[in-house]
Specification:
The chain folds into 2 domains: about 200 residues, Serine Threonine Protein Phosphatase 5, Tetratricopeptide repeat, CATH 1.25.40; about 140 residues, Immunoglobulin-like (Sandwich). Helix 11 runs antiparallel to helix 12. Strand 2 and strand 3 form a beta hairpin. The strands form 2 sheets. A 4-stranded mixed β-sheet has the order 4-1-8-6, with no helix packed on it. Strands 3-2-5-7 form a 4-stranded antiparallel β-sheet. The protein is of the alpha+beta class and about 375 residues long. The two termini are about 25 Å apart. Helices cover about 45% and strands about 10% of the residues. The chain is built from 15 helices and 8 strands.
């Protein structure tokens, strides 16, 4: 078993949201960008494919209570255990995706695993319609605090019926909404116009233009937490200090807007600032303990690294408990290490099997397979 003090490097390196080379050169730790202003028309980028011969699939997202569809629901694909974003649904829940798996949601796509593609060993740009990257992948809708129905894309279904049907979003907790800032709802028209321009630029991979648009949005409305947050996300891979300052302005503008806390806690964890990680995750989880499993995961890593192993286990269990779609399988890996450390071999083996079932092609999969085989040998010996 890998010594616990080495866990941080391995787990952070594999954290699904840390895309070193995401589309547009950005990444994020949240499953969701802050909301844009939908016009009711289908996202134009979602209908642009890699070639005129592309095959397109379409579907619709609805809420289980029949309510309005939240802004900027992301449509995700999961292929070989790796999850990435494909596009956004419009405000009526409609979406279109290319069978080739080409991502239209460029900014959101960087919120996931850097290695995510239809075939993790082959760049998406090299995959053709003859070998569609969505075949044998699962598609679902993603929005914090909700669980989605999903569908598996088979070759025959993709060719015979492009209608993916309805994806129902089911609320998973009773926490107050923290994925939409109250300042967004109160923003003046001019600030909203600049913000929408920034979101449009992000989807088109015009990152410098997006930054300028968000800057104009906060100049028009200094309390615009969503715009401060988006600027902070854009700075994450370029200047961590600048990103931190921008994200802190988002928190100051709206202390109950969760996404900036997620980014800030990740920055603290990456810097081995365990006290800062624990403070930030605790503050966010105090008002939303059901939407962001990664907050529990960050807390578990921090607690493990300062020797609070019982608390680390509790936090890892909570991460696994609310990660209904298994978007953060590293929590299973961490929980397995913690259980093995305290001698719960059966429990550790169960978590490792869960990790392998979820992420069979993860870079740590072979290591976990070897460790699981050793655990099973020990369990058989103890039962004799």
């Amino acid at each position: 078993m890998k010594p616990l003090f080495l866990l941080f490097s391995a787990l952070v390196a594999g954290y699904p949201a840390l895309a070193q080379q995401g589309l547009g050169g950005t990444w994020s730790n949240t499953a969701q960008p802050s909301p844009g202003i939908n016009t009711g028309q289908a996202n134009p980028s979602s209908t642009i494919g890699p070639s005129s011969n592309s095959i397109f699939l379409h579907g619709r997202v609805v809420m289980d209570d029949g309510g309005d569809v939240p802004l900027n629901i992301v449509i995700e694909k999961t292929c070989n255990g790796h999850t990435s974003a494909l596009t956004y649904a419009d405000k009526k829940g409609r979406f279109t995706v290319s069978l080739s798996g080409t991502s239209a949601a460029k900014y959101a796509d960087a919120s996931y695993d850097a290695n995510s593609s239809g075939n993790p060993n082959q760049p998406a740009a090299l995959q053709s319609v003859r070998k569609p990257s969505l075949v044998n992948c699962e598609l679902r809708a993603s929005y914090p605090g909700f669980q989605s129905d999903h569908v598996t894309i088979t070759a025959s279904r993709a060719m015979d019926n492009p209608d993916l049907g309805i994806f129902i979003l089911h609320k998973t907790g009773n926490a107050p909404p923290s994925t939409v800032s109250a300042t967004f709802l109160n923003a003046p028209r001019q600030a909203l116009k600049f913000y929408q321009k920034g979101m449009d630029d992000l989807r088109a991979d015009r990152l410098e233009n997006a930054t300028r648009a968000f800057q104009k949005a906060v100049e028009a409305y200094p309390q615009f937490a969503s715009a401060w947050y988006e600027m902070g996300r854009l700075k994450m891979t370029q200047d961590a200090t600048a990103a931190q300052k921008l994200l802190q302005k988002a928190v100051a503008a709206d202390p109950k807007y969760a996404p900036p806390y997620v980014e800030l806690s990740f920055l603290a964890m990456r810097a081995h600032d365990w006290a800062g990680t624990l403070d930030l995750t605790a503050r966010a989880l105090a008002f939303d303990s059901s939407s962001y499993p990664q907050l529990f995961y960050f807390s578990a890593v921090a607690n493990a690294n300062i020797g609070n192993f019982d608390e680390a286990e509790r936090q890892a269990r909570d991460a696994v408990r609310i990660d209904h779609d298994r978007r953060f399988p590293k929590a299973l890996q961490l929980l397995g290490f913690l259980l093995e450390r305290k001698g719960d071999l059966q429990g550790a083996a169960e978590q490792m099997r869960g990790f392998l079932a979820t992420s069979p092609s993860d870079e740590d999969a072979q290591v976990i397979k070897t460790e699981l085989a050793a655990l099973q040998t020990r369990l058989r010996a103890s039962n004799k």
